[in-house]
Amino acid sequence: MKKKRCLAWTLMVALLLSGCQRSVQPKQEPIEEEVVEADQKVRFLAVGDNLIHGLIYASGAQPDGTYQFDSMYARTADTIAAADIAYINQETICGGTELGLQSYPTFNSPYEILDAVANAGFDWLSTSSNHSMDVGEQGIRNQLAHIETLGLTQTGTHGDESDAQTYRVMNKNGLRIGLLSYTYGLNGFVLPQGKEYLVDLIDEEKIQSDMEAIQAISDVQIVSMHWGEEYQFVPNEEQQQLAQLLSDLGADVIIGTHPHVLQPADILTGEAGNETLVWYSLGNFVSAQDVNDRMLGGMAQWTLVYHPQDASVSFEEVSFTPTVMYFDGTGSDVQVYPLSEYSDELGATHYIQGQDMSKQYFIDRAEEIMNDSVELIY
């Protein structure tokens, strides 16, 4: 019996020791899974020139001396407001009635134009154009002050040197979006000596410096360019050269304005292999010009996709919705129509007569001018 108990005890001890030895084996470190950051997407919308002629501000006049323009943008407001960021080029200065309202060739519009722009859902105004100095420095200061009360982001004009060195960066959906604006000139007006900061002019050295500075504080960069030749349906050599320069500097999107008619879109490739979406001209969004092609504008839309793994950008759902500016013979009914809502009946009552104002004309012109890089939505 003693021998059996000793044998059993020996076996038990051996098993216990064996278990202890297993428990002190080095643990394997868990395999770390690679964390892949999700792509970040922002939906953009952009329209062209907000060109406020006398007929337009007269149409918004109220009996009490104020103005109301919300109805002018009403048919496009839902589409505008649905974008994460919506852009408009404020072609003509809104310096307020105290400076005297003016129309072509030197403009000044009431503040209520800006109110209507905000109410329509726009977030970003470019304010550098050839009309920025039409009523002098005070016009710029008045407009800047009113834009600030509305909480909108503006680029292209500045009240002082410090503001000119403060770059605009909008934060949306976790993405930092750097914004810049430039104009080719000021219709012969000269910026006051020592106040060159008032308007951002196209200058290649300045553009390069600004791009380097804003890239340090933003993930993507969008540049508004007031450029080109009026009433020309294709970009000129200077536009193409500047667009390629911006692409080489890393700009992700370029929004072109000034020609007052549509020009095609394109995708450029920069020196680093990056892609740049270019809208060479979005035409007039609002105006009372008297030529049918200048009534054709539109809403450019695209989804910018930022890939944080390599800081690259791509584009989805790039489209263009044509619009037609309508004002009747009395100048009392003034509205921007999506082309899908425009009709031949409206064309027959348009202020512009003796030119083709049919719906089919505008469809054909949009298809002729724009190219296959964007989907046209009617």
TrEMBL record:
<feature type="domain" description="Capsule synthesis protein CapA">
    <location>
        <begin position="43"/>
        <end position="289"/>
    </location>
</feature>
<dbReference type="InterPro" id="IPR052169">
    <property type="entry name" value="CW_Biosynth-Accessory"/>
</dbReference>
<keyword id="KW-0732">Signal</keyword>
<dbReference type="InterPro" id="IPR029052">
    <property type="entry name" value="Metallo-depent_PP-like"/>
</dbReference>
<protein>
    <submittedName>
        <fullName>CapA family protein</fullName>
        <ecNumber>3.1.-.-</ecNumber>
    </submittedName>
</protein>
<dbReference type="GO" id="GO:0016787">
    <property type="term" value="F:hydrolase activity"/>
</dbReference>
<comment type="similarity">
    <text>Belongs to the CapA family.</text>
</comment>
<keyword id="KW-0378">Hydrolase</keyword>
<feature type="signal peptide">
    <location>
        <begin position="1"/>
        <end position="22"/>
    </location>
</feature>
<dbReference type="InterPro" id="IPR019079">
    <property type="entry name" value="Capsule_synth_CapA"/>
</dbReference>
<dbReference type="Pfam" id="PF09587">
    <property type="entry name" value="PGA_cap"/>
</dbReference>
